[in-house]
């Protein structure tokens, strides 16, 4: 461990000094760039100052008057040539014509006779040609740098002209002024002080120093360079802080030694706490069993072990069938006690070699491994169902529950833990669909069925979006006159490539996938649009619990009725008792809002579930529909007829009209008329049919088959 600490100290020391070195290099680089920018700016400023001076002298009315009109060369010499003596603005002034012939030339206050070619350089000729070829209406001024006999100089050429731009001379009569300002030592000293550039000096283009900025002529030729001495602030700062860094390194080394001495026990405690935290994160707090994350870990280990030992792994997925009822009836505290009791019982049944996990809620999973795991899994499933089939004592209460079990097998560890859990879950749901209290083993056909359900969902979604859902209408007749009183709208779907799909197939798919809202509104819209053709009929439309739970359902119904121009009082929404049992308060609120917009509400399938007088009185339904199971039982006579009559009498005592559905023969119709039903519906009066056939039925006063019963 000490070696590790020593290595850490050395590594930290190396990193610190490396970082300081990089900081120093970066500081040097920043200073280099700043100096380079400052030198470039100084060169531009030097040239710009000469350009400003050139403009003042070239665009000068007096100069134009004395040169062009009076041709007073003495004035020109006094005001241009003599000004070159001890001037900080320019030190060479030359007046020339367009051909380059020199009229006057002065340098440092003295006339220039011989050696004019040392001032009129190729760079000067280059700018003079550009000015001459600029056009008759332009008076350009151009500046640049060149190398003269006296050194490096900024120069500028401009046409002497009136400040107003008035034409004074044309062609060869024009005059040009050439100003030069040399980069003398005194100028360099001022620039060095102003821009904080130590050792600023001119160099020839051939010098190889890196700290320099080239001075380029208008022709692209490097005439000279300004160089300076770098200050290297990074190196200076690094030299100052290096002793402090060594002190800090020594302190860090001492600290690490103390940390090693005092921290070894803390590290041991941390390791123990970490292991406990990992165990806690993989454990279900309520039951003390492995949780879902822990199950994934243990299953992966079990699959790897099975692959190496050439054994099989089986996973049993359990769902308690009666847990929700116990939880709702006795409260969550009792439900928690039930979970702990079941967990304890399962722990005894499965033994120590198995993996027992609670996945959440009332779901458990058991993983086992052996060479004949299928037989072991089936035997364990039977023992579990026998155990959970017995009444369980929970404090002072007795609960009777059962379980549905799904089993999946990973032969020789060939199926991953995640996949085997998915398969067991799918098998468990198949067991629940087949009636609960069952055990189901996964097979490949379940995946095929799942894929088929997925494709069915996709096709149904497309059918709703593309308005492929059709609506059939089943007649509802007056029980006494047997005349057509209304219709019930029923969804129909012909799946491309498959043919008609039964409603009991695609309606559950729509409810499970959340498509029921769109499907229900689609059916209601088509039915309302058809109802416009039948002003003497009423319309009944089924509403699923999924639609009823939607907070915006009432608003959508109101908007749809308004858009189609449908009288709300002619529309009856039929719904089963499922949602009323689950959410009575919300159901009452939704019913009140629906009644407020004028639609009627019917309780559908009365007598098929847990229907009670309390629901009829509490929710104030506008109509009750007797389930077909009661209607078909009337053929048996005796108590079935008495029950049917009692059901109708109950509704009539609450002043609720009754519709009987599922009528298939004359005897059933007669019994229901006698019982007091005011409306009848069923195949006896007509199967669900297209809207055009409803048009034909409206032309009749009563249905021919029952004409003798009127």
Give the tags:
single chain; 23 helices; alpha/beta; elongated; Alpha-Beta Plaits; 50% helix; TIM Barrel; 25 strands; 20% strand
Percent of residues in helical segments? 40-55%
Structural class: alpha/beta
Give the strand order of the largest sheet, numbering strands 1, 2, ... along the chain. 17-18-20-21-22-23-24-25
Largest sheet: 8 strands, mixed, barrel
Low-confidence stretches: 702-710
**What number of domains?**
3
Using the coordinates above, name the CATH class of the largest domain: Alpha Beta
Tell me the distance between the termini: 105 Å
Give me the count of strands.
Answer: 25
CATH topology of the largest domain: Beta-Lactamase
Task: Report strand %.
Answer: 15-25%
User: What integer is the average pLDDT?
Assistant: 84
Overall radius of gyration: 51 Å
**Backbone shape:** elongated
Q: In CATH terms, what is the architecture of the largest domain?
A: 2-Layer Sandwich
Give me the number of helical elements.
Answer: 23
> Looking at the chains present, what oligomeric state does this protein adopt?
single chain
Structure description:
The chain is of the alpha/beta class and 710 residues long. It has three domains: 7-227, 2-Layer Sandwich (Beta-Lactamase), CATH 3.30.450; 292-442, Alpha-Beta Plaits (2-Layer Sandwich); 470-490 and 525-703, TIM Barrel. The protein contains 23 helices and 25 strands. The protein has an eight-stranded mixed barrel with strand order 17-18-20-21-22-23-24-25, surrounded by six helices. α14 packs parallel to α16 (553-564) and α21 packs across α22. The longest helix is centred in the N-terminal third of the chain and has 57 residues, at 2-58. It is elongated.
